[in-house]
Design brief:
Structural class: mainly alpha
Radius of gyration: 28 Å
Helix content: 55-70%
Number of strands: 0
Strand content: under 5%
Low-confidence stretches: none
Order of helices and strands: HHHHHHH
């Protein structure tokens, strides 16, 4: 198996590669002559690079959101629907209505009910052992 020859990396070279690749690790790694995994590990060890990567990606998200808003303002129905359903889901999101038309049967023994009651009390922070539980 041929060993890969890595070029010496420094913060400036990696930052430049990340910016040129617009935050896409694969392309930045190719530019640097290393593997994606190697670049990920290098970024993990350098908080300044983590910050750079986050800034790049946030900038791209802002640009994409801007393009989406422009499309919605131009009247493109898919963009209008996306914005309304994702930015105001309470008003424009999908409404789900559930109806139950049958009966509900509980086939639990008294012991099962007591155990469930204890679990609920414990979840509420109440000491079930100090209470007198129904017999």
């Amino acid at each position: 198996m041929k060993k890969r020859k890595y070029t010496r990396m420094n913060l400036k070279r990696v930052e430049d590669a990340l910016r040129e690749a617009e935050g896409v690790i694969l392309y930045a790694a190719r530019k640097l002559g290393c593997s994606r995994q190697h670049l990920y590990r290098y970024i993990e060890r350098h908080p300044a690079l983590q910050q750079v990567l986050q800034e790049i990606r946030e900038g791209i998200i802002d640009e994409v959101q801007h393009a989406l808003v422009q499309r919605a303002r131009a009247g493109e129905p898919w963009a209008v629907k996306y914005l309304l359903t994702h930015w105001q889901p309470d008003l424009y999101g999908e409404k789900v209505r559930v109806e139950h038309a049958g009966t509900v049967r509980w086939d639990l023994s008294d012991e099962d009910l007591r155990a469930a009651y204890r679990i609920v009390l414990r979840a509420a922070g109440i000491d079930a052992d100090r209470l007198r539980l129904p017999e």
